[in-house]
C-alpha cells in the first residue's frame, strides 16, 4: 500500500471481486480499504490461498488495467528499499510515474518488434524466457532471500580475468595520435572492442570506463547500446542532466534509428513522461535513457545498464529513501545478470572499488594515446611560475592565464573560463574589517546582484540597502567571492572587442561556434565548442578545494577534467591553465590526466579513515531527542560504531553509524525496524535516515 509508515512496509492480502478477476493482474494500481480509509496500492501477486487467519476485505477499485509495475522492477524496488533502510512504497513512487489517464487511452501505434529478427539465435539470459521478462519470485514485490545484501562489491568473485566478463586486451592497438574527432571510437581503448563483442554475445560484461579528453561519449554509449540491442537485449542508460540527455538522445537516434528508444526525465511533464514510460513498459522500444528518473525504467530482457559521470551529485535522489542512480543500476545488474558500463572523465572512489575488488574491469586507453589527446596543462602556483610572476599566488587571473587566453584569441579559437560560482558577487564582506556581510534579519549571506544593485540576502531575499557592518560600522562592501557574471564583466574589460558569453544555470549554452570568443561557465554548464576550445582557464580553485566536504578533492578534479576535456589536443594548440598549486594531488592528477591514480589514492585514504565506500555509514538526523529515541530502539550490529552528534541545519543534530561493508544489510534493517517502531508509536518528531549520503558533515 502507498502508505508512508515504516511499520506497514509489507504485503497485505485482499480478495479480488469476480468482476475484476480478468483485469486485476499483478502490476496494476488498485484502491483498498485500510483502517477505515481508501488508500492506493499495488497488486503484487495473485494466489489461490492466504496465510491470514482473519477475514479478508475485497479490493475496492481497479484504478487502471494497465500493469505498470514490472516484476523485475518490483524485485529491484524491494532490494533498493532494503539497501537504503526505506520502504517499498517510497521506492515505487520513484520507480513508476503518476498515472495519466488520457495517455493510457491513446491508441498504440502498429510498430515492428523492437527485438531483432534473429533473436532466436541468441541464448536468453538466465531465468528469462525467450521474448519474455525476467522471472521474478513468487511475490513480485518481495526480494528473494539475501536480496538486501546484493551489493556487488561485497560478494566474492572468481579470478580477475573472468570476474567482469570483459575480455582481457588482446592485440587491439590504441591510436597513436587519434582523438574522438577522428572517429576511432572504442578502438582507442584496448579492451573496448572486446567489451562490445561481449554485449553482442549477451554476456554480463562489467566495465569502468575512463573517457579520453575530447571523447564523444554519447556516441560511445550509443555504440554500446546498439551492440546490446543486436544481441536481443535491452538497455537502461542514466545521465546527470538534461543537456547530457539531449546529446545522448541525438546519438542514439543516429545509432539505432528513429523510434527505437525513449528518453525519460522528470522535466518532460506528466503526459510526455508517462507516454515514454508506457512505451518502455509495453515493450515497444529496447532502449531507455534519461536522468535519474530512468534508473527504474522497465525494459524487457535487460542486457546493459550504463551511467555517465556517476560522481555528479544530481545522480543522488533527494527524496526518501535517497538512492543513488549508480547503486540502483549496479543492484539491478546484479539481480538481472546484466552488463554494466560506468563511464566518465573522472573516476569516483566507488567506481575504483569496483575495479579493485575485481567486480569490474577498467576500460582505459594506453598512455601514449592519452598524451596525444590531452591538451597542454599548466598550474600557476608552482615555483617556476611564481619566479616569473610573484603576483600569481594572489592574482585571480595570473599572467600565465591571461597570456594563454590572449594567444588562443589571436589564433581565432574560443576560450572557456570556468568559475565555481554563478551570479555577480555571491558573497561580500566589509571593506574595512573584512568581516562577512550578513543579513540583519536571518544572518544569511549577503550578495550583490549587479554593479549598481543593493545587497540582498541569499536566504530570505530581503534587501539590505542601508547595511552597516556590526563589527566596525563600515558601510562599504568588497567582493569575497566573484561569480560568473562579474568575471565576464572583468574579462570584457581585459579583452576589449572580444565577445563574452556566460553559461550557467540561468542560461546553458549547448554549443559554441568556431572563432574567437570568451565563454564564462559554471561547472556542469560548459558548452561544446566546434573543434574544441583553444584555451581553458580554471579559476578560483580555492573555492572548490577548501570546502568542508569529504569529496572536495574528488569533486574538484571531476569538474576540472570535464572542462579540460573540451579543449583541443596539445598538438592542435589546446592549453589548460589551472590557478592552483601544482603540488596538490588533484592538480597532479589533472596534469597527468590520471583519474585512476587519484581515485585509488582517495579510496586508500578513506579505508584508513573509515569512510565510505570503504565502509557503510548511515546518517540519522533530527531533533536530539528523536535521534536518541531511534538509536535506542535500533538493534545495531555488534561492529556498529556510533559517531557524533554533529550539528545539522535548523537546530537539529546528526549521528553517524559506521559498520563494515559486510554488515550493511544488518545496519539498514535495524534502522528501518527502529523507524517502524517509532511510526507505530506515532512519534511526533521525524528522523531522517540516509545510508551512504553524499554529505556527511
TrEMBL record:
Zn(2+) 2 binds at residues 439, 442, 457, 460. Its cofactor is Zn(2+). It comes from the Bacteria. Gene3D superfamilies: P-loop containing nucleotide triphosphate hydrolases, PriA, 3(prime) DNA-binding domain. Keywords: ATP-binding, DNA replication, DNA-binding, Metal-binding, Nucleotide-binding, Primosome, Zinc. The keyword ATP-binding applies. Residues 101-181 are annotated as: Disordered. Zn(2+) 1 binds at residues 430, 433, 469, 472. Binds 2 zinc ions per subunit. Residues 3-97 form the Primosomal protein N' 3' DNA-binding domain. Initiates the restart of stalled replication forks, which reloads the replicative helicase on sites other than the origin of replication. Recognizes and binds to abandoned replication forks and remodels them to uncover a helicase loading site. Promotes assembly of the primosome at these replication forks. Belongs to the helicase family. PriA subfamily. Component of the replication restart primosome. This is Probable replication restart protein PriA. It comes from Micromonospora cathayae.
